[in-house]
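REVIEWER CHECKLIST
Item 1: Sequence provided? yes
Item 2: Single chain? yes
Item 3: Sequence as submitted:
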Amino acid sequence: MVPPLSLRQYGIHVRDIRRNAVPAVLYERAIRNDPSAHIARCGAIMITSGEKTGRSPRDKRITISRESGDNIWWGPVNMPIDVHTFEINRERATDYLNTRSRLYVVDGFAGWDPTYRIKVRIICERAYHALFMYNMLIRPSDEELKTFGEPEYVVFNAGRFPANRHTSFMSSKTSIDISFEDREMVILGTQYAGEMKKGIFTIMHYIMPLRGVLSMHCSANEGPTGDVTLFFGLSGTGKTTLSADKDRRLIGDDEHCWSDNGIFNIEGGCYAKAINLSAEKEPEIHGAICFGAVLENVVFDHTTHAIDYADTSITENTRASYPIEHIANAKIPCVGTHPDNIIFLAFDAFGVLPPVARLTPAQAMYHFISGYTAKVAGTEVGVVEPEATFSACFGAAFLAWHPSKYAELLAEKMRRHSTKAWLVNTGLVGSTHRRVSLKHTRAIVDAIHDGSLALAPTVNDETFNFTVPTTCPGVPSDILCVRNAWSDSAAYREAANRLAHLFEENFKMYSAGCSKEVVEAGPRLAT
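Item 4: Structure as written out by the authors:
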């Protein structure tokens, strides 16, 4: 039996507390008490997150304190809140939770490596939130739960109750607050479950570098010989798709750490985008959505309960949460050796980046800090020409330290373990702006894995300052050297210079914290 749990130390006095309830119980409670909950034909539970269907980055706050204040990368990513206001919000959350007749508590671990994992406690009122974090945290065994003790971080999810917008530091009725000193997180005014997941990620982004561990927004998989590859990329670049490889075991799809022991997944589950999901294109992910999975904000047929993954009438950010064990070729425990290869994925809408390029450690730092991808004209309202997007370390919204802190850790570990770095363009190539097919991208990734691409002849890209393989099995040679894919050399130079200039302008905000070698590893304007 699991020892009885009291939350009185947090000021919570609700008698009915369901601790680490199993999925069947959480299904039952959600269906009974939540009008938006339904069972899909595949067995997953379908539910809506209310008004907010995505994260609220402008409402994220971190407490100002002497202990952590000098370490935080303050600015639009990490905005401050004073200790007094944090305490007001925490009391507002606990007072609200005390009005509920039942609460759910999920105790779990963040981090598969026992040396570095932390104990996390989630306190929430919605069964769906409990099931979501039951999936996303690493689930303790019965014995581990008996001896779990006190958590290192506590999340108070009172998302149905609003913040007081007239309180200091508040920008709306939504507030997501983290105190590294109190080791607590408070959620008000949003029921989007991803706030809990990414809040834990932000916590890991703060505490892991203090221990010399690199925390990363990336996916990871392992080959038959034990070789590990990390995939970095912003939304739409193929990070989840490419890491879900039938010939390789999945270590994780989103959040990892690189320690002296190797790679470990932070999470116990996956949170995959469900938009346009199909069994043909992504069979591993499609097959993982069954009993125990949470489908968030999807549209379905109310008669057959069949899901329409193409319907975006609620949101384009439809999501599926499931335990990593639902992936047939997942590696359990989710740990691996030091990576042999790192792949930075970019969707280039300008058509000037090659499908693949080899990076030096300095170039890897430059592109890691840059975190580039782009939007294609016509994909969103108001986007009439290619639009560059930069997100430091391919996940600026979750960083706690300055990006250079993570880049230095990356370069140090790459050098120590002879890790190769690659830039892979999954977007457009050439003057006709044809997209690199998934088939060709997979062939490139396969050639990286089998080592043949590292031995291929190369040419130097004079604008972007890296070496480009000129041959790759299964990939047409006319797209590998991107300059040759442009019929008009002047038009190529103009497009390449435009993107190079955008890189330069974006990197200005980071250059003061980087070495001369890293700054000079970026693009150079073509002549």
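Item 5: Key structural point noted by reviewer: Residues 75 and 333 are 37 Å apart (CA to CA).
Item 6: Recommendation: ____
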